[in-house]
Structures are given as structure tokens and as C-alpha cells.
Design a protein that fits this description.
Blueprint: E1 3-6, H1 8-15, H2 22-34, E2 38-42, H3 43-54, H4 66-79, E3 82-83, H5 87-99, H6 106-119, E4 123-125, E5 139-141, H7 143-148
Parallel strand pairs: 1-2, 1-4, 2-3, 4-5
Length: 150
């Protein structure tokens, strides 16, 4: 059994029926669960999800209302265990960004890594493999890879 954190892009695509990768995101996540793996989310997922879901379509959002977004967030939180916010997350994050000279928007990705390190989660399911390249601390998995495995 392996512990996975879902990247926000997985949650967004599972929730957006218009996304060309909607089915892939859902099937890969379902397959992990059927194989007995643990699949988690974190509060950062929910914050990022809310930002994209409520942002206008013209600026790469889903254009949803706050009510529609709230309903979807409630469903997500009921489906996946939420990793607890702990003081160790900040310690891991700060150490990671300093050690690896992380700058700009990659700082957000570094926080996912910090959450994983604080909770012993080893794998990240994401469509954005390039955002996490050269991260020896964790295993990066694309949904397509999950679908190819038995």
C-alpha cells in the first residue's frame, strides 16, 4: 500500500466534466483506491481549487459561482482524507525552499512536498510532472502511468 497526495490539477479535472482529461483523472484516482492505496488531499488543494474554480474562464478558470464551488469542495472533502496542518509542514517547507533555492510560483509546489514529508506520503499524482522534476524526496506519478499498471 502506497500513500498518494493528489495535486490540485487532478481534483480540478475530476470536477470539470468539460476537461479533456476528466475521465483520466477520475479513473486513475479510482484505480489507486481499488488497488488499496491511500489517497489524500491537503488544505492547500482546497484553496487552490477555489481560486481556479471561481476565476473567470477568460483567465484560465472554470467560471463557477461560489455556491457551485462550495458544493464541489464539500464533495471532495467527503471523498478524500484531509492531511492535518501541523507545525512540521512549515519547518519542512522552509528547509526545502532554502536548500533547493526555490523561487517564484514553485514555492507553492514546495509546500505540497513539505506536507508530504511531514506526513510520510511518498507519491504525488499530478498532470504537471515538470513542476516536480528532480525531487528525490517523493515519487511523481502521472495518471497515464497509473492506467498502464496492473
Amino acid at each position: 500500500m502506497v500513500a498518494y497526495l493528489l495535486d490540485t490539477n487532478i481534483l480540478l479535472r475530476m470536477s470539470d466534466g468539460n476537461s479533456p482529461t476528466h475521465l483520466l483523472a477520475g479513473k486513475a484516482t479510482a484505480k489507486l483506491l481499488m488497488q488499496g492505496h491511500q489517497v489524500y488531499i491537503t488544505s492547500q488543494n482546497i484553496v487552490e481549487f477555489w481560486v481556479v474554480a471561481t476565476r473567470p474562464v477568460e483567465v484560465n478558470g472554470l467560471g463557477w459561482s461560489a455556491e457551485q464551488t462550495r458544493t464541489e469542495v464539500e464533495q471532495i472533502v467527503s471523498q478524500f482524507p484531509l492531511l492535518e496542518e501541523t507545525p512540521q509542514i512549515f519547518t519542512h517547507w522552509l528547509n526545502y525552499v532554502i536548500t533547493n533555492n526555490v523561487m517564484g510560483k514553485r514555492v507553492h509546489d514546495a509546500r505540497f512536498i513539505a506536507v508530504m514529508l511531514a506526513h510520510g506520503v511518498t507519491h504525488l499524482l499530478t498532470f504537471n510532472i515538470d513542476d516536480f522534476r528532480n525531487k528525490q524526496e517523493i515519487v511523481i506519478v502521472h495518471p497515464q502511468t497509473v492506467m498502464k499498471t496492473e
